[in-house]
Amino acid sequence: MVSIITPAYNSEQFISQTIESVLCQTYTNWEMIIVDDGSTDNSVQIVEKYIQKDSRIKLIKLEKNSGPAIARNKAISEAKGRYIAFLDADDLWLAEKLNKQILFMDNNNLSFTYSSYHLIDENNHMFGTFKTRGYISYKSMLKTCSVGCLTAIYDTQVLGKQYMPNIAKRQDYGLWLQILKDINSTKGIIEPLATYRIVSNSVSSNKLTAALYQWKIYRDVEKLNLWKSIYYFVHYAIYGIVKYRV
User: Is the dihedral of CA 118, 211, 235, 101 positive or negative?
Assistant: First the structure.
């Protein structure tokens, strides 16, 4: 079984589309654990309507807003599946996503994988595709993050349950680095299997904020010395410019 980890905070605008993209999966052995992080809109009511229709969807309600790291980690702790997958409450999966990725992991004996993904805006208009790398290592990931959170899956049978560092932003990137330190390298699927939504207040839309948290990852999470941090940050900046232009 695949346990799908979905943190939600004031997600009423998009969460129905997100859940529907899971319900459309051709791979049916899954549970979707949605953790409401203290929403003040109608997110909970929307999720509860889906729960009445499909018992594979589960809801955990946090008493106060605690941030996506705590929300995701709570879901991971409750997960019953062998595989842990991630899907935020405004993103989407293509129908064959789980089927193709689980088969890819099985055929290639991989415990952690990812894929390329499409990009859409708040009005569902597609404006690009992020093409990932077919192979990544711990060192290459320090230079640039090639793993979109909505595409990542890891195998608890091999890695055990892995949790995200409790930081305000980029906690998913911290987890990928944590896993890659254990396995050294892995492979991904070049074909886009998901759709990432960029909204006006997202980290991805604020390059300065993303850069600041990238630096925090190097110094506070990975504990790199100053010179190594500068070395990898320069690579991060260069890759960021290239990706932006593409």
Answer: negative
Which residue type is seen at 146? S
Per-position DSSP letters for 154-218, written without gaps between them: EEHHHH--------SS-HHHHHHHHHHHHH-EEE-EEEEEEEEEP-TTSGGG-HHHHHHHHHHII
DSSP-derived pairing of the beta strands 83-86 and 153-155:
antiparallel
Side-chain-side CA neighbours of 153 within 13 Å: the count stands at: 33
Largest CA distance in the chain: 54
Distance CA 94, CA 226 (A): 41
- pTM, whole model, 2 decimals? 0.91
Q: How does pLDDT run along the chain (246 residues), one tens digit per residue?
A: 999 999 999 999 999 999 999 999 999 999 999 999 999 999 999 999 999 999 999 999 998 888 899 999 999 999 999 999 999 999 999 999 999 999 999 999 999 999 999 999 988 898 899 999 999 999 999 999 999 999 999 999 999 999 999 888 889 999 999 999 999 999 999 999 999 998 865 544 467 888 888 999 999 999 999 999 999 999 998 887 766 554
Residue ranges of the domains in the chain? 2-202
Superfamily of domain 2-202: Spore Coat Polysaccharide Biosynthesis Protein SpsA; Chain A (3.90.550.10)
Q: Look up residue 228 and give its amino acid.
A: K
Q: How far apart are CA 114 and CA 188, in angstroms?
A: 5
The strand ranges marked E within the chain are 2-8, 30-36, 57-61, 83-86, 92-93, 112-113, 115-120, 126-130, 135-137, 153-155, 185-187, 189-197
Angle at 113 between CA 225 and CA 43, to 5 degrees: 95
